[in-house]
Design brief:
single chain; about 400 residues; alpha/beta; TIM Barrel; Arc Repressor Mutant, subunit A; three-stranded antiparallel β-sheet; 14 helices; about 20% strand; globular; binds iron/sulfur cluster; rSAM_sf; rSAM; Coproporphyrinogen III oxidase
Length: about 400
């Protein structure tokens, strides 16, 4: 297992809240906008049962350990703090919580809720702004406005949050955007955001955007450079290819550095901790395969099937995770981080003492190092910041060497 000296938690708990005020046309997460209060109450009670199940199932250690908690969605910020308090209490009985995040949507946030969230234990807010540019927001089907986003940041700040991460989408066709992405980040910083998570628009098959051509790779590459430079100038540290912040992000580190996490709630994925029998952990998801294939726009399906209910709740273990799969996943995520891959770690996991030499002798990697695209520093090999957007190309090169 990779060591993460800056944080105490070695396990994350992700809880999926699949309710949204409306469906955004680019989104392929498991969610619904058709629900009643009864559905919500039933869902939270099932979520609580699933949490009990997992807290019971995973191995206990004698000493209370640390964990990170993340409520994602969907739109968890649609609901009052009292929905979350009992779930957090259950987790606190079992773990010290090192970080507690709530995903929120500027359209539906309510000022008074921020102090309630803080009082039940949340210490990190993510805000799904996606943009401050009216034309970009319109194309993305987002119904909030620039001022709503800036007000939300102020509400969260005033309530006492100092870790406010704003989600952005870039890489739309040039003619759509009327506000430069770097100017957006400057405004968010001035309003009090502590960081941004910026993802290039990707057109997913199972969405209402399936046949649209709003994304542009070339523009994504040039906007990525603007994002990098602006974040650097503001003191937002690059935590991972798409994440920049003045604060640490302990929960996301769990994913990026391959640590186990419990995924709870319809459509959530998890990675159970390694055991003697399963040295690379067990990946699983909650819910039937068909929840992944709901038709775009038909967002009632997950409730008509009642797939979130405990009576139908089932864990679908994915086929045994092999060492090769583990290594490929790790190379993919580690090359997105500033620390990159530790060569001594790689030698140990592959049980191949010459793997470092083989990597450094590879013609493409060698040229990458000469051109400054890949950096070799002590025991680490990592991608230069500007090269991270082309990370997938390098991932395949590294993976070809460990096959
Ligand atoms: S992008 Fe967020 S708010 Fe929009 S449908 Fe997806 S989960 Fe819901």
């Amino acid at each position: 297992m990779i060591s993460l000296p800056k944080q105490k938690s070695r396990i994350g708990i992700y809880l999926h809240i699949p309710f949204c005020p409306h469906i955004c046309p680019y989104c392929d997460f498991v969610k619904t906008s058709k629900f009643t209060k009864k559905d919500v109450n039933a869902f939270f009670s099932e979520l609580s049962a699933q949490l009990d199940f997992f807290l019971e199932k995973i191995p206990h250690s004698q000493n209370k350990e640390y964990a990170t908690v993340y409520f994602g969605g969907g739109t968890p910020g649609l609901f009052d703090a009292f929905y979350y308090e009992p779930l957090l209490d259950k987790i606190r009985d079992r773990y010290f919580i090192e970080e507690t995040t709530l995903e929120t949507n500027p359209l539906t946030n309510i000022k008074r809720r921020f102090s309630d969230y803080l009082s039940v234990g949340f210490d990190r807010i993510t805000l799904g702004a996606q943009s401050l540019c009216p034309e970009t927001l319109k194309i993305l089907g987002r119904k909030h406005k620039r001022d709503t986003v800036l007000n939300n940041i102020e509400w969260a700040r005033t309530a006492g949050f100092d870790n406010i991460q704003v989600d952005l989408i870039y890489g739309l066709k040039k003619e759509i955007r009327t506000i430069n992405v770097a100017d957006e980040i400057q405004e968010l910083n001035d309003a009090g955001a502590s960081g941004v998570s910026a993802y290039a628009l990707s057109i997913e098959k199972r969405t209402l955007f399936a046949n649209k051509d709003f994304a542009c790779d070339e523009n994504a590459a040039s906007e990525y450079l603007l994002i990098l430079n602006k974040c650097k100038s503001l003191g937002f540290k690059q935590l991972e290819t798409s994440n920049f912040s003045k604060k640490e992000t302990f929960h996301n580190n769990i994913y990026w550095y391959g640590l186990p996490y419990l995924g709870i709630g319809t459509g959530a994925h998890g990675l159970l901790p390694p055991s003697e029998e399963h040295p690379f952990g067990i990946r699983y998801r909650i819910g039937e395969e068909k929840i992944k294939s709901y038709a775009p726009g038909n967002d009632e399906l997950i409730f008509s099937q009642q797939e979130h209910r405990m009576k139908n709740f089932s864990i679908h273990s994915e086929p045994l995770r092999t060492k090769q799969e583990y290594l490929e996943e790790m190379i993919f995520t580690l090359l997105r981080t500033p620390n990159g891959i530790s060569l001594s770690w790689l030698e140990k996991v592959t049980e191949n003492k010459t793997i470092s030499q083989e990597i450094l002798a590879n013609a493409k990697i060698k040229r990458g190092i000469e051109e400054g695209k890949i950096i070799l520093e002590n025991d680490s090999i990592f991608l230069f910041d500007e090269e991270k957007i082309r990370g997938d190309l390098w991932v395949s090169e590294f993976i070809s060497l460990i096959k």
